[in-house]
Amino acid sequence: MIEPFKGKIYDPCCGSGGMFVQSLKFIDSHNGNKKDISIYGQEYTSTTHKLAKMNLAVRGINGNLGDVAGDSFFKDQHSDLKADFIMANPPFNQKQWRADNELVDDPRWAGFDVPPTGNANYAWIMHMISKLSEYGTAGFVLANGSMSSNTGGEGKIRQKIIENDLVDCMIALPGQLFYTTQIPVCLWFITKNKKENTELGYRDRQGETLFIDAREMGTMVSRVHKELTTDDIADIARTYHAWRGEKKDGEYQDKAGYSKSSTLEEIKANDFVLTPGRYVGAAELEDDGIPFEVKMKELSQTLYRQMEQAQEMDVAIRTNLMELGYGQ
Prior knowledge:
This protein is of the alpha/beta class and 328 residues long. Helices cover 31% and strands 18% of the residues.
């Protein structure tokens, strides 16, 4: 989606470095140069922090993952960083991440509001916004509740993020994509600058946000796990790139039930809720060419047959009960 070919890449909760590895694979597959990127990250768990360093080392990549493992909120080891790309999968709905009197005056919340103690979703969002360069883009995964929650002042924070025209794209994904949770998730794409950029081929998108509803996409690969196919991912990416104005991906058009380019006024009219289903509408039904009268007649006949069968079954059940001595 964000194509991190060149610049600084940051992940504030990098785990064992999976996002970085995927970025490197993307660059290789598109004949890019690894020397054009710089990697920055941070991880809270000491063992996982060491794994991330090893993951980069075995691939011959120098990355700044901080001197030690540390909490990105309380021990930010990249306080002056301004990243061109941010990719992250923060902990979903992280509880009690700070005490009531902690980080109240933190500069990362400047211009917004202090995030609630009971859920760190918006703390992660504001942390990443604070790390973006002038033309930087962030793409991250959050639980679906982040798109509409008003708990603890989250709605007011989301409203300010929207009014500052930072939300570039929102994607609703299908459930069962993760091995660790069954809940459906969404993708946020935040950018500091939606102005026209001729170098990158972006059109002026000021005052616009793209919504994509991908909940019906994907293929079940097991009884409990779904995957997005390569074609699914390519379709979503093409939609986003075309909307941004990249001519290689064709002209963008809204598609009922799937994508919609909405204005800030439309989002305001929806109480600043960012759930794509609110905007994309229902998919158009294909006309099969059968007249309504013919369809209605066939459906009515099917219903009458089923009603007759139901009556026969009621009689058979009553007879069996009487034979068993349970008749009225």
